[in-house]
Amino acid sequence: MIETPVDPAQVEGFMGRVMSMYAGAMLNYMIDIGHRTGLLAAAADGAATSEELAGRAGLTERYVREWLATMVSGGIVEYDPPTRTYTLPPAHAACLIDGRGPINLAPFAAFQTHLAKHVHQVARAFKEGGGVPYAEYRPEFTDVMDGASRGFLDAFLLDYCVPLVPGLADRLTAGGRVADVGCGTGHALVLLGRAYPQSTFVGYDIDDAALARGRAEAAGAGLTNVRYEACDAARLVVDEPFDAIFVFDAVHDQVDPARVLRRIHDALRPGGFFVMKEPHAADALEDNLLNPMAPILYGCSTLHCLPISLAHGGAGIGTMFAEGLARQLLADAGFTGIDVHPVAGDPADAVYVCTK
Ligand SMILES: C[S@@+](CC[C@H](N)C(=O)[O-])C[C@H]1O[C@@H](n2cnc3c(N)ncnc32)[C@H](O)[C@@H]1O
């Protein structure tokens, strides 16, 4: 065997990179803890000692101090030794606290915490084939997904997605029928149901617990025009067709995405609209490398989107749903006039709008 000479400086440089990846992984968990416990929000209220912060958040000081040490050494929180006070800089708070910046990234940390628990199962699938059934990720995945998508829906559904569909707002104001397939905890329909009281909204999902949360939220909002039904989208059959069907992040990880899209097509009235917000990628790996989120997205794919599809012998599209493939699947299902719209501030996703 001929040994290729290795540059020690390159080895050292890469070791540094690996260590910073491991540090990033730990900081991910710290952000997750800070979000779950309210510590990030407490820290954003101004400089404080660990005792004061623990008091503000109602937490155990010794844990808070260790968390702060991690956050300070990771460059997220600043520390002033003379006063023993910790500060979350405003620019950092703008990324990690609700309402302080364009988007709160803290809820996304829960994805990595959650997916890490499934590494051993996915590694087994690498060796033995198959995958990890969706049920294995529940109920925690439901919470994580809700935490990640709720902010998007609040920010974009009524003001961005609905106006992308010609005439939809007027139709819904007058009274129409809309479905959300793979609705999860159903927040989208609560927003729509409240905005368009003359219209009827139905959410479909295979997860009873997620649907129960949707029902509770809709009931809490006093909505009688929103309902949720347990249904496998691959078997969706409706008595009365819909004017529009939405899907948010629930096509790319299907066992049989082509069949789901056909069922959605059949469930629309002629001229009805299908709107799907899905991950947006290029077909070739090399064309996705400039996307700074690519390692996160391919990682989520490896640990979740791919194994839940492959667990049942599925298509295994994965998270990086290429626009070319998406267009092909939509056209094969019978959709026409396919338009692809960017999502502001979110280069990883796109909103597809098409017509039956
Ligand atoms: C990634 S989550 C997205 C949930 C929700 N749309 C959101 O944006 O928060 C995918 C959802 O699709 C549901 N799902 C997966 N396969 C399904 C199927 N064949 N039929 C109906 N729902 C399905 C899952 O239970 C899950 O709630």
Any overview of this molecule?
This protein is of the alpha/beta class and 356 residues long. It folds into two domains: 8-98, Arc Repressor Mutant, subunit A (Orthogonal Bundle), CATH 1.10.10; 115-355, 3-Layer(aba) Sandwich (Rossmann fold), CATH 3.40.50. Helix content is 51%, strand content 17%. The strands form two sheets. It has a seven-stranded mixed beta sheet with strand order 5-4-3-6-7-9-8. The chain has a two-stranded antiparallel ribbon with strand order 1-2. β3 (177-181), α11 (187-195) and β4 form a beta-alpha-beta unit. The mean pLDDT is 96. It binds S-adenosylmethionine. S-adenosylmethionine binds at residues 145-146, 149, 182-184, 204-207, 210, 232-234, 248-250, 254.
Describe the structure using short key phrases.
single chain, binds S-adenosylmethionine, 16 helices, 356 residues, 51% helix, alpha/beta, seven-stranded mixed β-sheet, Arc Repressor Mutant, subunit A, Rossmann fold
> What is the share of helical residues?
40-55%
Order of helices and strands: HHHHEEHHHHHHEHEHEEHEHHHEE
Basic shape: globular
> What small molecules accompany the polymer chains?
S-adenosylmethionine
**Main sheet summary:** 7 strands, mixed
As residue ranges, the low-confidence spans are none
Strand order of the largest sheet: 5-4-3-6-7-9-8
> Tally of extended strands?
9
Q: What is the radius of gyration?
A: 23 Å
Strand pairing plus helix content: what structural class?
alpha/beta
Classified by CATH, the class of the largest domain is Alpha Beta
Average pLDDT rating = 96
Number of helices: 16
